[in-house]
Amino acid sequence: MTEEVIRRTTSLCPECLTQIPAEIYVDPKTNWVMMRKNCKDHGDFKDKISIDPEEYKWAQSFTDEVGSTINNSTKPVCVSSGIKPILNGCPYDCGICENHESAPCICLIDVTNKCNLACPICFANASAKGYVVEPTFDQIVQIMKHFRSMEPYPAVMLQLAGGEPTIRDDLPEIIRTGKELGFTETMVSTNGVRMGKSFEYTKSLVDAGMDAVYLQFDATDDPEVWKKVRGVNLWPLKKKVIENCRKAGFYGLMLVPTVAKGVNDHQIGNILDYAKENADVVSGVVFQPVSLCGRISFEELMDLRYTTSDLKHAINEHTNGGIKRFYPIATTAKFTKLLAWFDDMPEFGMTSHQDCGFATIIVVNDKGEWEPIENFFDAEGLIKWANNVYDMVHDKKVPKPTGLLGSINLEEYGGLASTIGKFVDDITSLGYKQMMKAYFFAGILKYIKNPGKILSSKTYQSFAKLVFAPNLATAANFLHTRNLMISAMHFQDAYNFDLNRVKNCLVHYGVIDPDNPSKVREIPFCAMNTVHRENIEQALALDGEHTEKPEVITQRISSYIDSIDE
After folding, report:
1. For residue 458, how many other CB atoms are within 10 A of its CB?
2. Which of 173, 256, 431, 534 has the most crowded Cβ, counting Cβ within 10 A?
3. Domain range holding 281?
4. Is the pLDDT score of 460 beyond 60?
5. Contact by Cβ (8 Å): 273, 303
6. What whole-number distance in Å separates Cα of residue 455 and Cα of residue 447?
């Protein structure tokens, strides 16, 4: 086997964080996709990107084929837009600089760095720092307004994180204000401690307009895993969170496992099963392979590195091939824009880099079994059709009248045939947008397999609602019928850092500029955690305030867990 270079990019030296060129290639010895790079001062570095080169290459080409775009650029219309000129190059100018190529879909705000856990694994390394970083309510509103006023596309989703965001007593008011400012989806990333302790508090977040909970969820009933990852066995508490969400009538809970090789990768199947068993509350699982920090050898890196390709194999081993294709997040970029247009909302496209992660649907069928969504319809064909319709909308094209139903054989749809025909006839008389809905609907029918099952299968019924009334609400409802979203975000560290990924990042931290409090700095997720966090937080730290010592935090939560067990 000969070596194959897939692409070239720019990375960072793990020692000095200096920009250095990097190659993504297939290693002929291992048949793995690897990154290699050299720093003139600190030598050679390698890291594993994927254990499945064919699937990796398919993802690169497939996303381009279906129309991943950088047309939603945040490049400045005017100086007041907050875009910074290039001074030192990516990723050092984050604020955001004119190098960036994708508008943010998610405004991410760390509302505090305080935490009620002392986790050994933590993006923010919150409890170990000692100093307190906590923007005021007015500063949080300032950040939200910045993201909502961006041109040409404002951020549509708000994610509140930390530290632990539920430590703030004003979190419900922050959520409520975010909704008032126009964020369509408000998410809270939490360890669940306060939500597990109090139904009333959980209900207050729901009543304020919280749309999703990203719940830290690293295992099921395995105390040793919890102690390794979070310092204490949180399993009794996690079950309380599920109970309180169910009692509050809340649907929109995403389980978020941080996966560490040799620590909890054996828990992937258990977590998937738990999501399936609680699908009335849980809408999906977002896996996050752990990011690595500190200086380690290549051998240690290989022992610890867990990639999304490792995760894909583990998922399909457990579900007996329940996911045929792990679609890159950007796959549905135009589909999302089309649904937003149908919904009279600002367009937004999830145009992240192919390597950032995947998002797909796995069906829990009427027998409670895992089943690929491709058994129900041609997913790739559907996506390509949505792209085609979006391109027509973008270019203001009008379909030919004869193309509204195309070659659809209505007899296949049994009792729905007359309804489908009437729907198309009625909707085409209502204007361009309604006509395009009809065109989209008519075309999508071609990709349904076994359409006669629409009246008997819950999966088909939920899909029918989406095509009859295509918008973001019915897309979300598609998951509320025992269809689970399975996704992953593999956040970068200094070893696998790829500037092409950073330039297409969709998840941007919003922070008050330490040098000019009247301005907001906007920083891509992986750039924040790898390059900027420590300097920014030290500059924003509150004088005279200190976080609790980790041992005090751990003792308090341990006592509470013991009381649950009793």
Report:
1. 14
2. 256
3. 101-307+501-566
4. no
5. no
6. 17
